[in-house]
Amino acid sequence: MSTKKSKSQETGHESATSGPEATAGATPRNWMTAVILLLLREWSSYGYDLMERMAAFGFAAMNPGSLYRVLRQLEKDGMVSSTWDTSGQGPARRMYAITEAGEAYLKLWANGIDQYRTMMNTFFRLYTGQPEDTNNTR
Predict the structure, then answer these.
(1) C-alpha distances in Å from residue 91, one per residue of 25, 47, 80, 84
(2) Closest to 50 in 3D by CA, of 34, 30, 29
(3) Fewer Cβ atoms within 10 Å of its own Cβ: the N or the C terminal residue of the chain?
(4) CATH numbers and ranges of domains, the chain
(5) Predicted structure pTM score
(6) What are the pLDDT tens digits along the chain (138 aa)?
(7) What are phi and psi for residue 84, nearest 5 degrees?
(8) Residues 94 and 81: beta-carbon distance below 8 Å
(9) Is residue 79 within 8 Å of 99, Cβ to Cβ?
(10) Are 94 and 106 a contacting pair, CB within 8 Å?
């Protein structure tokens, strides 16, 4: 059994041809994008800092190249911006920040995942035989 992660597992982007069996334990499509935007909403950050903070979201053994490819694409799409920080010792580092377009995408993503969470709660309630929640709380 191989422990090597597929590119889709590494980047959080599943292929359109993947079935449920192939994605068991995988992250949702575009998960890395949503996590990056969420973390950048909290504060602007460097790539390696983002990588460390993303471990809490299932990206513990991430390839740095995957992160930087997604960051470049997000910048190209207008969801993040970057500037060179030359204030510290050592080489200049690229500092990333979320843009208004990134905030809008994150809001849409959060609304979608909230609806998904509601469906998953219903699924597991039925699966485990729990009574329906009449208070409609999560």
Answers:
(1) 38, 14, 22, 10
(2) 34
(3) N
(4) 27-128 (1.10.10.10)
(5) 0.72
(6) 444 444 444 444 443 333 444 444 556 678 899 999 999 999 999 999 999 999 999 888 888 999 999 999 999 999 999 999 998 888 999 999 999 999 999 999 999 999 999 999 999 999 999 887 666 555
(7) -85, 130
(8) no
(9) yes
(10) no
Spatial distance between the Cα atoms of 76 and 33, rounded to a whole number of angstroms: 13
Q: Which amino acid is at 31?
A: W
Token pair 């999560």: residue: 138
**Region for 8 from its dihedrals, namely left if φ exceeds 0, alpha if ψ lies in -120 to 50, beta otherwise:** alpha
| Of 81, 90, 138, residue with least CA distance to 115 | 138
DSSP 49: H
